[in-house]
Amino acid sequence: MDEIDELLSIRAAELYYEENKTQDEIGQALRLTRWKVGRLLAQAKQRGFIRIEILHPRARRLPIERRLRDERGLADAIVVSTAGVSSPEELQARTAQAAADYLTALRPVPRTLGVSWGRTLFEISQHLRQGWATGVNVVQINGGVSLNRRPGTAAATAVAIAQKGGGSATLLPSPAILERLETKEAIESDRVVAGVIELARSADAYLFSAGAADHSSVHVESGYLSAPDVDLLVQKGAVGDVVGRYIDSDGNIVDPALDARTVGLTLDELRKAQLAIAVISGPGKHAVADAVVRSRLCSVLVTDEATALHLLDG
Amino acid sequence: MDEIDELLSIRAAELYYEENKTQDEIGQALRLTRWKVGRLLAQAKQRGFIRIEILHPRARRLPIERRLRDERGLADAIVVSTAGVSSPEELQARTAQAAADYLTALRPVPRTLGVSWGRTLFEISQHLRQGWATGVNVVQINGGVSLNRRPGTAAATAVAIAQKGGGSATLLPSPAILERLETKEAIESDRVVAGVIELARSADAYLFSAGAADHSSVHVESGYLSAPDVDLLVQKGAVGDVVGRYIDSDGNIVDPALDARTVGLTLDELRKAQLAIAVISGPGKHAVADAVVRSRLCSVLVTDEATALHLLDG
DNA sequence: CGCTCATTTGCTCATATGAGCACCATCGCC
DNA sequence: GGCGATGGTGCTCATATGAGCAAATGAGCG
């Protein structure tokens, strides 16, 4: 395509997309046949001169979803558009909404849903509508007696998801990370705790997020880890955590001793799941998202456009 | 339109615009008739959920051009797209290119073209192609013996436009602004100068830009005005200059004494012109652009999208 | 200069889309 | 509960568009 045709294709595109002229009318205006106009428009599209965006909080990016499924081997992928997003909160809200939508539309409806906790999960619980399902029981899959008093604690999240889904919540009454291995083993051998973990293992589906390995982590905020602890993990190669377990960019446990003191499903148990839905979004989570997908910790990923593109091209 | 239809229209738009499905296929996927799909898509468009942009340095915004013509009473308007513009230089280049294109396509071809000088005019002269016209003579319409040595001086601009247009340039051998009124009157009474100004008055078309009233002005750069001079003009209400004459937001001369010392066509002479093409772009020139259009200093405006929107809505 | 081959052009025809209209469900009103 | 009004739905039909193909154009080469 030469210079002159390129310019003509732009003129044609202006008349077609901005002025709603027919190809025939454009042909008359530019002294071209309507077929030539059609070809110019096709070329303008094909060369990427025409960008069509869907501006809506609920808009998704289907082509990127397909690429994620095909190129990264996911069973399913949900990618929310970042067009028109003005704040990190809005991005988080969009992703949570998409996750809630996905859960609501999920068939067969899981009888038991294993969930983690954190900011993302709490927001998903808020975006689910009352009656999103009937009879969905929820079980926590990792320890999470919150140490702070903010709303959105582990228990509130699981309870909200269960209540809105017409089922009941089973909480895992344990801290996320214990200070001593012996305490962790003692807690896990407790009849109630062991029962909850057993129930968690048998869940039909899992819904969890991932945290970035930095000081903004809920583990720091909740007091399970200190800022220097996190720095040390980063030094060892940690990119983030899934259900409280810190992984490197290949999805391997960074600190086995720490991991042994962490209560809940192990990553290998999660990997064996039929349906593991990870919800990960935000610029700070590109690295964890990559690790999660690479190491097959999830079969379904709900994320934002920028993160998805990072997984594909970055 | 209720919530559910709005969501459906977004899903439909995704399948239509991103996946290139037909409305019929979308109907099958979403369990709707194809007519319903068509209506949903129409509503999505109408409600502004669909944004179509033409990404190209030569792209124009025809709907905005029409609004400028209709709402601001311009004979013609050229608005370049700002989509994908990354630097002020690129914006300037796009606008200059559009002005060059407009000149090239102009019919009837002007036999004599009056031009001002400055950064914008120089850039236009560079974007004109060799042979853009045949036999177009160029005459300077305001004083402009440059005091500095940079390329793009007043003379070089006029000569380039004329040379590429197969004609000759007539320069106005005078400073832009004189220090004393008597000197200005003496210069204007000089046979050669008076002849050039007479020729300028008889031009078929004028091409000029406008400067912002700030320290970046070419008058400051060229030494005709000092920074405090400009500050004083701003205090008196100046928003910018046209052919060296400073105007307020209504297009009136801000400082008649200064104006009397300025050599070249007067603004009223410019206003009487059949065809006066103003080329004004950049965020710093919104106010001058508005003054120029409001006071009918130009019949044709070449500008950028942001400036145009300012003229319409701001 | 004439030939070949590749590309572009203008066409026919099938398909996709939008306009306009009859019909039907839903709602307020009696 | 009957009844007209209102808005949405599915249709017919005209139009716009894209696929595929034959003719025309023109560049390259003997």
Could you please describe the fold and organization of this structure?
With about 325 residues, chain A is an alpha/beta fold. Helices cover about 45% and strands about 15% of the residues of chain A. Chain A has 15 helices and ten strands. In chain A, strands 2, 3, 4, 5, 6, 7, 8, 9 and 10 form a nine-stranded mixed β-sheet that branches. In chain A, strand 4 (about 135-140), helix 7 and strand 5 form a beta-alpha-beta unit. The interface of A and B includes residues 59 and 63 of A. Strand 1 of chain A pairs antiparallel with strand 1 of chain B, so a sheet runs across the interface. The structure holds a DNA duplex (30 and 30 nucleotides).
Shape of chain A: elongated
Mean pLDDT of chain A: 94
What kind of assembly state do the chains in view correspond to? homodimer
Run of helices and strands of chain A: HHHEHEHEHEHEHHEHHEEHHEHEH
The poorly predicted ranges of chain A are: none
Largest sheet of chain A: 9 strands, mixed
Portion in helices of chain A = 40-55%
Number of helical stretches of at least 4 residues of chain A: 15
Q: What share of residues are in beta strands of chain A?
A: 5-15%
Q: Report how far apart the termini of chain A are.
A: 31 Å
User: Total number of β-strand segments of chain A?
Assistant: 10
Name the pair of protein chains with the most residues at their interface, and give those residue counts: A-B, 26 and 26 residues
Structural class of chain A: alpha/beta
Round the Cα radius of gyration of chain A to an integer and report it: 24 Å
